[in-house]
Amino acid sequence: MTYPNAYEGVKKLILAEALVLISIGLGILAAILGTAALAGGLEATVTGSDASAAGALAGGALALICTIAILVLSILSTIFLLIGLNKASKDEPQNFKIAFFAAIAVLVCSFLGGITALGIVATIAKTVSNVASVAVFVCTVSGISELAKKLGRNDIASMGMTILIIEVVQIVLTTISSYTGGVFAIIALIISLVGYVIYLVYLTKAKKMLEA
Fold first, then answer.
1. CB–CB of 145/158 below 8 Å?
2. What is the chain's mean pLDDT, rounded?
3. Quick one: pLDDT band at residue 179, thresholds 50, 70, 90?
């Protein structure tokens, strides 16, 4: 094994990414349950139905549980991400070290944005967090690509470039949807999910490459 630290680091990144995908799934489920609970609550108010009220209460409780689970998974995902990037940086410091510090910036800015709901501080924190998130992604993919080139795996390096292109498209559509909403928001969400899945596949391939 040529790069044991990178191998162990990528394993942690895979776990972090898997938790992110689970969080997205729970987020969709929470949105559905929340909508159903709201509809049931309105029906119970209009008709006085105990069954509708009970259904609304159950849906709301499940949505709350999903929300708490998402919070826990997000914390765990961040921890595994930091551990993975720090470990991988020992074998490829040029990109993974930048990704590590960018991930810390995301964590700090997310915290600041959370405790400062309004004002210029929250706006700046959100902007820096978004930029740092992109830096984490780009530097991680670039780090893996560099290792792939050194190991003569041009297929992995080329796949990294494809993932970066998908990420750029997703960022552009997300930015547009923040102003327009509608179909752009749906397309951005779909591309984002596809990007996450492809990225997870990429990390898995990278792990197998580094295992050799």
1. no
2. 83
3. low
Q: Is 181 exposed, middle or buried (0-12, 13-18, 19+ CB in 10 A)?
A: exposed
Q: 51 is written with which tokens?
A: 């069954």
3-state DSSP assignment of residue 53: helix
Residue 153: exposure state from Cβ atoms within 10 A (0-12, 13-18, ≥19): buried
CA pair distance 79, 137, nearest whole angstrom: 16
> 10 Å Cβ neighbour count for 88?
31
The percent helix, strand, coil of the chain (3-state, each to 5) is 90, 0, 10
Decide if pLDDT at 155 tops 70.
yes
- Say yes or no to pLDDT of 139 above 80: yes
Residue type, 51: A
**Residue 95 · residue 139 · CB < 8 Å:** yes
DSSP 99-143: HHHHHHHHHHHHHHHHH--SSHHHHHHHHHHHHHHHHHHHHHHHH
